[in-house]
Amino acid sequence: MKYIDGYRQGDAGKFLGKRIVENAALLADKHEPIYIMEVCGSHTMAISRFGIRDLLPPNVKLLSGPGCPVCVTDAGYIDAALSLARKDVIIATFGDMVRVPGSKKSLADVRSEGADVRICYSPAQAITLAQENPEREVVFMAIGFETTMAPVTTLIPSAEACGLTNLSLLTAFKLVPPALNALIADAEVKVDAFICPAHVSAIIGAEAYRPYVEERGVPCVVCGFEPLDILYGIDNIVSQFLNGECALVNQYSRVVTDAGNATAQKLFETFLTPVDAGWRGIGVIPMSGMGIREQYEKYDAAKRFGVSTDGGSPDPGCMCGDVLKGKIIPSDCPMFGDACTPQNPVGPCMVSSEGSCAAYFKYER
Ligand code: SF4
Q: Which of 196, 221, 268, 269 is buried most deeply by CB count within 10 Å?
């Protein structure tokens, strides 16, 4: 298609939007509304930002899934970081995590009480922090999906190479494929097709979604983040339903290969191992996380300091779990825009720059 020459061409957008509407009209007589879930926080933000939901006919619904790594991190993980911060440990973290509420407080709260919380723009800054503070422990908050997991995991060989003994990782890494399995298996979640994440797919490869297509009958389209990328994905999925097809399509082939990034995969294999992981508001999904291998456990902050990252007690009124499963939209939460705003977030979905509640608050109120 010509539109690939420019990702924001108005004509191409109009063409795709028109075709989606036309095909959806043909589909309306033979199919229930189609529920398409995007499983990436950057897609969620782009869909809201570019008003894509408003372009769609009523029988093509977009749902946001658990694609924001900050949003799916358990309150218990924040509590563990808070307990370390109170022990005079330097907490190094990406900025998004600072305001995420734990059971009672956030890192921003304990920082205002004197805890040493440093914001990093790259995991490599944690190495510098550890080198500059040899008498103190530095703990890096190692969260994220496969994409972030790759650069953060390099901290282990880097610390080895530098001979650092005061740097460790508090891990809450998450894997996308087990989450997709859990969503498909959940009878309460309506999902007919996935817009698969772009960055994660660059690591795991498009073929990782083949089982959902061939064994579960769920069409999957890997899409980039530009509005035309997303429109193309929706158009392709609607066409698949119209034609009775179920296919895996890699629309983002300018970045994503079939097999993914072999270097990152080797890194995971060397230093990490699959573990059960708790997802905020969703619960434990078996083997949906990655922890540090036993031979590198000196870099595992949970083991080193004897803290648990499980569970926690998030605000019972926060409906992030239902938002993350696409069961409700953010404005269905009674606290949305009232008791919960980006200035005073109750749940992580309102904190994160990739959170559904933040996206709705900013663009779809
Ligand atoms: S609006 Fe706030 S309280 Fe409600 S689900 Fe979203 S983050 Fe949670």
A: 196
